[in-house]
Amino acid sequence: MNSRYEVVIGLEVHVQLTTKTKIFCGCSIEFGQSPNSQTCPVCLGLPGALPVLNQQVVEDAIKAGLATNCQIAPHSIFARKNYFYPDLPKGYQISQFELPICEHGWMDIETEELGKKRVGITRIHMEEDAGKLLHNESNSSSVDLNRACTPLLEVVSEPDMRSSEEAIAYLKQLHQIVVYLGICDGNLDEGSFRCDANVSIRPWGQKELGTRAELKNLNSFRFIKQAIEYEVERQIDVIEDGGEVVQETRLFDPDAGVSRSMRSKEEAHDYRYFPDPDLLPLQVSADWVERVRSVLPELPLVKLQRYQDEMDLPAYDAGVLSAERPVAEYFEGLVALYNNPKVCSNWVMGEVLGALKEKNLEIIDCPVSPELLAGVLQRIDDKTISGKIAKTVFEEIWQSGKNADQVIEEKGLKQVSDSGAIEAIVDEVIAANPGPVAEYHAGKEKLMGFFVGQVMKASKGKANPGMANQLLKKKLAG
Ligand code: ADP
Ligand code: MG
Ligand code: ZN
């Protein structure tokens, strides 16, 4: 934290929705298709083609609004944002301006540095994306309009953040929410979640905001943090050198780790917004909002709290298990079948997530379902197998898809609780280790662990460890 200046950050995030079709026509929005193969008169911007609003986009906007505590406007307006660029054949982008669908929301974030904080969300509005320019080697450019008319939500925050760390906490939480809601795939590389950061500084205690710079082209959390920190230093230098920060748009260059001015306020566009005469004002009834509210999933922060309060899990476990919806669903599925949340948590965080990571798989593709895993845990409980053998059983289930009972049976993994059989092994172990036995008799009782280990090893993990312990004690004492 700088001793002389306070940092002020406001963020604009573009969230690309995962609808089947575009916002104003029936074309697919699938990524990576051949150029201009997913177009029609509407998204090509041909004269006279009329946009028709995709209802799913409105529902997704309502979901995002409700999840971020916004008010949902009963009446909102689509507007034309006019500018010229070759990837925008209509000469305007359809967006929302004066009456957006969501306003006055907030999210609570937390950072180590500054603690808990409520960040205001000014608005969330719907808009269409533009196409893409492909710059060819021959100094010419081609236009791909597959992305034109792809549905976006623009989420605009209040200038409430005071450090790059807070900005990242806000972005990660917003990212988590839209992915949880199932309205965005969250892929930063493919541009599904894009952020512009507005940054200014002001002397501590000053009420008015300083002049801001807007940073663009930030497509990873790491770059966003770097770009903000670079910008803060740059503005401090400008002011300390007796200069003034000018309002401008700057482009971050991740390779060089610096940003460069793209355009100043004087060069900024005048978009001449006006209501789009091709689209009726949008009416959203209270009924509709309630219907959407009733199908919202439980959100990650609520789960995080519930796992701690109701399931008594440590904050760390609750955080790992609630961070991604498919993981939370797997975990909750397991707890529903085996009602010991801490044991379930240990297995999901340890064996399941570990094996998935090693094999580079997502949890929805996990070969060991919650049902199969619950079967393993029950066999530990009824002492058919030890906790250690359970890990072998888990691996076998992973490979074969068979259930715990089948694996235990076929591989002969059942715990040995026959005292005669264990006694024989105990005798062998004692006979094979005269040195440690002598030390044990001389008072080194810690060696009991070693003996139990030897018995488990000799029985390939199948001896009942409690019985092994008892028998060893008896024999070594005698
Ligand atoms: P524009 O649409 O021209 O980018 P807005 O007024 O909509 O301008 O502001 C966009 C973003 O900039 C918002 O997230 C807002 O919080 C943030 N912002 C506005 N003023 C400042 C400032 N002085 N310092 C930091 N962020 C700011
Ligand atoms: Mg802006
Ligand atoms: Zn189309």
Fold and architecture overview:
The chain is of the alpha+beta class and 478 residues long. The chain has three domains: 5-288, no CATH class; 297-411, no CATH class; 419-477, Arc Repressor Mutant, subunit A (Orthogonal Bundle). Helix content is 40%, strand content 20%. The chain has 16 helices and 16 strands. It has helices at 41-44, 55-67, 164-180, 221-240, 286-294, 300-309, 315-322, 325-337, 341-359, 370-381, 387-400, 404-411, 419-432, 434-441, 448-458, 465-477, and strands at residues 5-16, 71-72, 75-76, 79-82, 92-95, 102-111, 115-128, 132-135, 141-144, 151-157, 193-203, 213-218, 248-253, 258-264, 274-275, 282-283. Strands 2-6-7-10-1-11-12-13-14 form a nine-stranded mixed sheet. A hairpin with a 5-residue loop joins strand 8 (132-135) and strand 9. Helix 3 (164-180) runs antiparallel to helix 4 and helix 6 (300-309) packs antiparallel against helix 7. The protein starts with a strand and ends with a helix. The model has no long low-confidence stretch (mean pLDDT 94).
Give the integer mean of the pLDDT values: 94
Which cofactors or ions or other ligands sit in this model? adenosine-5'-diphosphate, magnesium ion, zinc ion
Low-confidence stretches: none
Instruction: Report the helical percentage.
Output: 40-55%
Spatial strand order of the main sheet: 2-6-7-10-1-11-12-13-14
Shape verdict: elongated
Number of domains: 3
Number of E strands: 16
Largest sheet: 9 strands, mixed
Supply the number of helical segments.
16
In terms of structural class, how would the helical and strand content be classed?
Answer: alpha+beta
Distance between the termini: 69 Å
Strand portion? 15-25%
The value of Rg in angstroms is 30 Å
